[in-house]
From TrEMBL:
SUPFAM superfamilies: lambda repressor-like DNA-binding domains. InterPro entries: Cro/C1-type_HTH, Lambda_DNA-bd_dom_sf, MLTR_LBD. This is Helix-turn-helix transcriptional regulator. It holds the Pfam family HTH_3. Signal peptide: none annotated.
Length: 270
């Protein structure tokens, strides 16, 4: 198997793309990886054929996602080393360890809404708090496969209920744009362009460095307003491609009134 047999591009070209994306010089990458800048240059230009170990060593220093590390190995003529669980319903049934871990994590946040998404923000699993937030929504946006970012910003989705839509939209678009740039994923770039074209305005303050921590989600609700702070959790030690790409977003009540409303609407099961 040649370097180009699977990907159509040499492994050196792909590694150079990741180095440029991470804004590292050949010297900086060489120092990080404990090799010479000359060797990095030779790998990138094709004058040296890297071993599988060298590909993984460079990929680790470049913080390349596991899925892309497998592609680098294939481009270099080696077999992938990271497994990939199937996220379809049949594979994530009762007893599946990935599904069990997700269900436990989501249930632990109850009654705060929490959901698990894949690398393209497709809904994988959710707890009952999410159902409470989305109550009354119908149509294609809530029919599988559900993209949670599209659902949140679309005029037929959650957007009309978001009090601070411009601010929240700015936060979501900034986060998604950064993710698309860091991963080089064309599907994320396409999703960003799609959501950018939706109405709703954009608050520039959501682009500030602290925005990931402090931008609230304020929702209109019967009898008042619910305010949430969003957190995103990933499986940092995962060695499976699919599990590494999963993220759990939790909407924590930001005030006592929201916490009380959640407890009233979603009392503990008997």
């Amino acid at each position: 198997m040649t370097e180009t047999a699977v990907t159509g591009r040499r492994v050196g070209d792909l590694l150079r793309d990741w180095r440029v994306r991470r804004r590292l010089s050949q010297m900086a990458l060489a120092l990080e990886a404990g090799v010479s800048a000359r060797h990095v240059s030779f790998v990138e230009t094709g004058r040296a054929r890297p071993s599988a170990e060298m590909i993984l060593q460079l990929a680790e220093r470049l913080d390349v996602p596991l899925r892309e590390r497998n592609r680098l190995l294939l481009a270099g003529g080696f077999a992938p080393v990271y497994g990939q669980a199937d996220l379809d319903e049949a594979q994530l049934g009762e007893g599946n360890p990935v599904r069990t871990a997700l269900d436990r994590l989501l249930a632990a946040h109850d009654p705060a809404p929490a959901l698990a998404v894949d690398r393209h923000w497709g809904l994988v699993a959710a707890n009952r708090g999410v159902g409470f937030l989305l109550a009354g929504l119908t149509g294609e946006l809530v029919a599988p496969p559900v993209n949670v970012l599209r659902l949140s910003l679309h005029p037929d989705g959650l957007a009309p209920r978001i009090v601070n839509l411009a601010q929240w939209r700015g936060h979501v678009l900034h986060r998604l744009g950064r993710q698309a740039q860091q991963t080089g994923d064309p599907a994320l770039a396409a999703l960003h362009a799609e959501l950018l074209a939706l109405p709703g305005g954009e608050d520039a303050s959501a682009h500030e460095e602290h925005a990931d921590l402090f931008v609230p989600l304020r929702l209109r609700a019967d009898g008042g307003e619910l305010t949430f702070l969003s957190t995103v959790t990933t499986f940092g030690t995962a060695t499976d491609v699919t599990l590494a790409e999963l993220a759990v977003e939790t909407f924590l009540p930001a005030d006592a009134a929201t916490a009380a409303a959640l407890r009233a609407a979603l009392p503990p099961a008997p």
